[in-house]
């Protein structure tokens, strides 16, 4: 079946502009995760959704970051007034259940964001 | 909060040889899972192997196996008969509870032909 898809694959934007990154999880997966991977670094957890709700938003780096998920499926990560330090690869993952424990997470190919 | 440490930024191994990647972690939880993910240049994160903390037996997946030492909080990955396609970044990750995984900074594995 289809895996996790993300769009766009690459995004170049000017500092101060808003961007939207999209994630389409594996069909039937209830949990959805967003991570950020800066150059040469591991993955930094941003937020997760169980269904349409996000129980914990404390991983978002600043109030310029927001995320939503509608219909228990597609999720959008929005970054307002982008800054150069937002440049990174943004990865999305989905899982059959909301747990980092017993269920592995299936990752999408990521969106590479470059803020100029 | 948990932390994951990968002390080897880069490792190199001859094709067909065996290599071990190190990972240590710190947590106060007693029930958790550990993962190794592979990330080739395509950026796609691929699950290599998973270990449940309550299991004493080390997980094995074909040429990949782990040495899980719970008391020492150590979780190393052994790759046997290394192949050119194994070249990638390898990330150790900790999973516990409903939040996302905690990743180490990765080890870049180079396979010498």
Quickly count the helices of chain B: 0
Kindly report the average pLDDT value of chain A.
Answer: 89
Q: What does the radius of gyration of chain B come to?
A: 13 Å
- Strand runs of chain B, count: 12
Helix percentage range of chain B: under 10%
| Element-level helix/strand string of chain B | EEEEEEEEEEEE
By DSSP (H or I, 4+ residues per run), the number of helices of chain A equals 0
Q: Ranges of chain B with pLDDT <50 over ≥5 residues?
A: none
Distance between the termini of chain A: 37 Å
Q: Main β-sheet of chain B: number of strands, strand sense, barrel status? A: 6 strands, mixed
Low-confidence stretches of chain A: none
Mean pLDDT of chain B: 93
SS content category of chain B: mainly beta
The largest pleated sheet of chain A is described as:
6 strands, mixed
* Tertiary shape of chain A: globular
How many strand units of chain A? 10
Describe the structure.
The complex is a heterodimer of chains A (116) and B (113). Chain A has strands at 5-7, 10-13, 19-24, 31-37, 43-50, 65-69, 75-79, 88-95, 106-107, 111-115. Chain A has 116 residues and is mainly β. In chain A, a hairpin with a 5-residue loop joins β4 (31-37) and β5. The mean pLDDT of chain A is 89. Chain B is mainly β. Chain B is built from no helices and twelve strands. In chain B, the strands form three sheets. In chain B, strands 2, 5, 6, 10, 11 and 12 form a six-stranded mixed β-sheet that branches. A four-stranded antiparallel β-sheet of chain B has the order 3-9-8-7, with no helix packed on it. In chain B, β10 (88-95) and β11 form a beta hairpin. Chain B is globular.
